[in-house]
Structures are given as C-alpha cells and as structure tokens.
Design brief:
- This protein is α/β, with parallel strands linked by helices and about 280 residues long.
- The protein folds into two domains: about 130 residues, 3-Layer(aba) Sandwich (Rossmann fold), CATH 3.40.50.10860; about 140 residues, NAD(P)-binding Rossmann-like Domain (Rossmann fold, 3-Layer(aba) Sandwich), CATH 3.40.50.720.
- It has eleven helices and twelve strands.
- The strands form two sheets. The protein has a six-stranded mixed sheet with strand order 2-1-3-5-6-4, sandwiched between helices. It has a six-stranded parallel sheet with strand order 9-8-7-10-11-12, sandwiched between helices.
- Strand 11, helix 9 and strand 12 form a beta-alpha-beta unit.
- Helix 6 packs across helix 7 and helix 10 packs across helix 11.
- The longest helix is centred in the C-terminal third of the chain and has 16 residues.
- The mean pLDDT is about 95.
- Bound molecules: 2'-monophosphoadenosine-5'-diphosphate.
- 2'-monophosphoadenosine-5'-diphosphate binds next to helix 7.
- 2'-monophosphoadenosine-5'-diphosphate (ATR) binds next to helix 7.
C-alpha cells in the first residue's frame, strides 16, 4: 500500500515549541497503536497560525495540538468546539473534520485530573484544593477539576480581580473562593495545592510564600523540566511532596491522540520513558 495513504499527519503549534516533548510522546503512542504518524513541532505566532494550520489540514492532516501562547487564538479559529474548550475559552487540540471544518477541544483538564487520580491514589471528590495563579492555564483545567466534586476550590492570585473573575465564571460548577497571595494563610487546610503561576518558571524570582501548605498537602506544579526546578528545590527544603506536570502532559496528549485516532494509549510507560533523555 502507498505509505502516504496510511500516514497520519499531526503537529503542535506554539512559540517557543522547539523543545516540546509532544513529538516524542505521540511517537511512543503511535508505536503502541501500530500506527504510522508524522508529528511535527511548528513554531508560529498568532498572526500566522491560521495559515500554518490550514497548510497542515490541506496536506491531509488529521489534527494538531496548540500550545502557549496560541490556545485562545486556536479556539477562535475553529468552526465548532467541545463544551470543555468553550468553558476554557481556549483549545489545545484541533480535530480536522474536513480540511475546512475544525473542531476545537481542550484536553488539559482531563490530563490533570487523570494524573492526579494516579498521584493521590484515589478521588478528588470531597478534597480541598488551592490554586495559585489565575491565568489561561487555570481557565483550561478548572471545569474538569470542579467536575470531580471537590469540597472547595480556592484561587489565590497576585491580581485579585483575575481570581475573582475566574471564580465568578465557574461558580455554577462548584464552590469556589478567591483571594490574593497575601491570603495564603497558615492553618488553612488543603489536600492539594496547584501551582499555576508563570513566575516559578524563572529561577531568579522569589517564590510566593505558600503558607497554606500543610505537611500532608500535595503540591502539584503544572510546569515540568527546568521550569519546575525552583519550586522543586523550595518544596524539598520544606519537606513537602511536590510533583511536576509531566504526567499531566502525557495524559492530555493521550486524550488528544484518542480524539484523532480512536486509540487509548497506555500512559504509564510513556511517563516513565520521559524520565530518560530521548
Ligand atoms: P498561563 O497561560 O501560563 O496561565 P498567564 O495567563 O500569563 O499564563 O498567567 C500567569 C499567571 O502567573 C497569572 O496568575 C499571574 O498573575 P497575575 O494575574 O497577577 O498577572 C501569575 N504571575 C506571573 N508572574 C508573577 C509574579 N511575579 N508574581 C506573582 N504571580 C505571577
């Protein structure tokens, strides 16, 4: 058979995207599935995103991932959207139903919830969750977190009005409160604290003083790799269990792969493989 007839063309678009782990992750999923894929990392900006995605769709592409800072733009470009993408106002996945009809989806929240289920050894139902940060990353995961029925989600952010806006936007889905970083008090009890700020990606920035972390809390960083190092060092000194976002990355990718191919990947071996250089 003509090799091109079975080749599934995919890509991730972002800026920067050179160091993206997605080509490797999807390559490992394809091996499991016995599928022949081409998954490219394409650097582009908002202005050229539509053109670049169209070129992929026209060349027989099945779909693509979108990463920072293009997720909102990708959502706007799609003809249709899943409820998840609509709630987030952002897409990390596009499925080409036809070359000119794109469906937006957002698998970030599912990715986080699935990785948390593994890390926390159980359910998020009834748990007390704190989120530090109120940007695009939080909007992308909040709907799926609230769908797990936590007791409460508290959003702390430097700019209080952004935290308040998010808590109002999602208030119909569960109990949410908001406050500033100064409200992160000792004695508040959280089972899970999620770092969703971009500040911890820089090693020279003073980290927020997360006084609400208890010895039993799990600190989950949405970042991974170098961007996770400063928080990992800080948590280690305080004897707090801290996990990076690599598992979430693999889980969100697995859901995208499922949307494109119908194949459910076994994520455990892929998360393990990422611990070794590719
Ligand atoms: P992302 O898509 O990664 O969520 P974003 O939408 O720019 O990126 O959001 C970045 C988050 O990190 C915001 O919550 C931001 O706080 P503000 O809403 O006050 O801007 C937070 N953040 C970035 N730099 C920070 C800093 N130096 N101190 C505290 N919070 C910071």
């Amino acid at each position: 058979m003509d090799q091109d007839a079975t080749l599934i063309r995919l890509a991730v678009f972002g800026m920067p995207v050179k160091h993206s782990l997605s080509p490797r992750i999807h390559g490992l999923f394809a091996e499991q599935a016995g599928l022949d894929i081409e998954y490219r990392a394409i650097e582009t900006c908002e202005e050229f995103l539509a053109r670049e995605v169209q070129a992929l769709a026209d060349s027989g592409g099945r779909g693509c991932n979108i990463t920072m800072p293009l997720k909102q733009r990708a959502f706007d470009l799609a003809n249709r959207a899943s409820d998840r993408a609509r709630l987030a106002g952002a897409a990390n996945t596009l499925l080409f139903e036809t070359p000119s009809r794109w469906k937006a989806d957002n698998t970030d929240g599912i990715g986080l919830v699935r990785d948390l289920a593994r890390q926390m050894d159980g359910t998020l139902a009834g748990s007390r969750i704190a989120i530090v940060g109120a940007g695009g990353a939080v909007a992308g995961v909040l709907g799926d977190l609230l769908a797990e029925n936590p007791e409460n989600v508290f959003i702390f952010n430097r700019t209080e009005k952004r935290a308040r806006a998010l808590s109002e936007r999602f208030s119909e889905l569960g109990k949410i409160n908001s406050g500033t970083l100064a409200d992160m008090e000792n004695g508040a009890e959280f089972d899970l604290v999620i770092n969703a700020t971009s500040m911890t990606r820089k090693s020279d920035t003073a980290l927020p003083d997360m006084r609400m972390l208890a010895p039993s809390s799990l600190l989950y960083d949405l970042n991974y790799g170098q961007a996770h190092e400063s928080l990992a060092t800080w948590a280690h000194k305080k004897n707090i269990r801290c996990i990076d976002g690599r598992g979430m990355l693999v889980e969100q990718a697995a859901q995208s792969f499922f949307l494109w191919t119908g194949f459910r990947a076994d994520t455990g071996p892929v998360i393990e493989a990422l611990q070794n250089p590719g």
